[in-house]
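Regression report. Comparing outputs from two consecutive submissions.

Submission 1:
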Amino acid sequence: MKKSTIWLLTAVMAIAVLGLLFVQIMYMENMVKMRNEQFSEVVMRSLYNVASNLERDETKHFLDQDLNEAQRSLVPFSASSTFADADMPAVLQRDSAGKSSFGSDRNTIGENTLPFGLNTNKSRQEILKGQYLYQKGLLNEVILNILNHASDRPITERADSVTVKQYIEQELQSNGLNMPFEFAVQYPSNSFAYSTSGYKEASENKGVYSQILFPNDPNGNFHTLNVVFPTKSDYIFSSIKFMLPSFAFTFLLMAVFIYTIILAFRQKKLSEIKNDFINNMTHEFKTPISSISLAAQMLNDEAVTKSPLLLKQAATVINDETKRLRFQVEKVLQMSMFDRTSATMKLQEVDADAVIYSVVNTYKLKVDKFGGTITANLKSDDPIVNVDEMHFTNVIFNLLDNAIKYRREDVEPELVVSSFNPDDDHITITVEDNGIGIKREDLKKIFEKFYRVSTGNRHDVKGFGLGLAYVHKMITLFNGTIKAESEVGKGSKFIITLPLLK
């Protein structure tokens, strides 16, 4: 699959997933907004009903008070009255000034003093008329009393906390809101007449709903009923919690999508690496195979078989190229051990300095071939480590082989292998060269499998990108660490730290 196709699929999937997420978020926001509006509407309607109930209670209070005053001045009807029955009203006794018990002026009905009995010549209609005028006057007395004296009563009497709480609970339950609340009654001066214990704390973080009490008071100094709901957020959230699985599945889909795209690019990269690996391997195998084939053809020539010198030369070519071919095959086989090395390794007590010294002496001939030098600077006091000797030897060989492979053409190669103890528990081994160096962006990837550093105009450097990956794998299995320091044009330095055997 081409990279352009992968990027196109990535863009389409990203737009689809982001669009789905956007729709879900907008739907959730609209749900929350609508739920908040519904909640506010129900609360305000309930508080309005609470205020209306309190006004009715106050009207009833003054009506009861007025009736009590009226009952004190009642005069019973005469037993001989023609129309005396249960449906006839009591008649209020007036004083000589024509004033009721509340002190306000009122028109008399017929005479200054209401009749003690009924005249037999009066019709029933006149009696009912008198009864109506009396009831009308009584109601007028109550209304005037409320207008003139209601606001003089303390708010704690007009709306006591127990009654207010009962009304709030009743109204909220009748509107389908059965949830805890805190409330307070506030003076016009913004101080509180009274409040519940949790009101102050709850009102700091939650929205407060307010309703004016007794808005018809003549002086305009209105008291306010404030209510707050500590669990409002939970109530709103409960209406949208069904969206959580949808979000979870969307994020899961996004994670799978991202992981799939990463795998696609990784597979694309591995495919390119595999092709490079096959090309490099073909080239590396082609040269020794061609040389061996040519030497074998020479052996079939009678002139060569009759000449000991030519025969020896052909045998040498076959031997050298066979070794070269074996070395390349061994590098490929090293990678096959990556997943099973821990099972095949034979960890044992090894003198790291002795192994390094042996490898340096063996490799000196190859360095001399290029006119270079190799130095072993072994200064460790305690070189005993717990490693697999064969793999540890291959690690040092690989690092030295890379130093020669990536040498500079303008200077003679100089290799220095050192060891020392940075502390009582570890040994540090360094392999340093004066080669072409490694770019900073390549330093992070040189230990990856099949990764090969670009060599610029150098076309004679071949390989599979396996050497440093193998080195990193082995050092990790030895419970050690390896890092690289390099500067382009000045050389590279590989630093290995291994735990000592205790």
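Submission 2:
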Amino acid sequence: MSKTGKIYTAIVFVIMYLPLLVMVFFSFNEGNSTANFTGFSLKWYKELIEDEAAMNALKNTLVLALLNSIIATLLGTVAAVGIFGMKNKWFKTGIMSVTNIPMMNPEIVTGVSLMLLFAFVGRLMNSPESLGFGTMLIAHVTFSLPYVVLNVLPKLQQTDPHLAEAAQDLGSTPAQAFFKVVLPSISSGILSGALMAFTLSIDDFVISHYVSGGFTTLPLLIYNMTKKRVTPEMYAVCTCIFLSVLVLLLVMNISQIKQTKKQKKSDN
């Protein structure tokens, strides 16, 4: 890379990550100022732990993200296998286009449309409270599914199609061949999709805002905190989310690197 390219890359990284580093820095501020650093302290993290509303929102966020990643990964893996097995090229292209709509659609449009749908279904069922945890989970699974499909599908395309056939020739049933041969070969894609669904669920705000009802997650709590005076406690909440997502992305990247190295060794 040329010197100009290195300088440009450095500027891009500074613009992207300097605000995050400032936020993390001031989350350890001893005072309640968000502009002047008066000393290192874990005061705001302690207050965050003692804040019942914050801890309840954290529990809701983790439960929602975990269930979303499990359901989206199962449905997305099945969908990817089905799409991969389609023979009609035009139908397959159409299905992929429909699958990608939740990713391309603006989040506010998706959130409003889901809210209207849930309100309509709730009215048909004479339910006074149509929005809540269930609607949040459905909404999160909806926008997480395409990401799981796009992580699993390339791994299926890289898998040797003759492996499953060889397993069946040796006496395995189609189901046994899939679980013993195909599934292990696409496991890195499944893991990447699950982690992607988990991280998307943790930091989603726009769609959650419209379908939450009385169910509160950390992003919604942070939004409510910004209506008041901003304190380092909010920085502490944001830092926890940022570090959680960072750790998950590192795990995902490391697993992909290991899988790539393993694949290269097996090919050699």
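Expected: both submissions complete independently.
Actual: both completed, but the second showed a warning that disappeared on reload.
Relevant detail on submission 2: Residues 141 and 208 are 12 Å apart (CA to CA).
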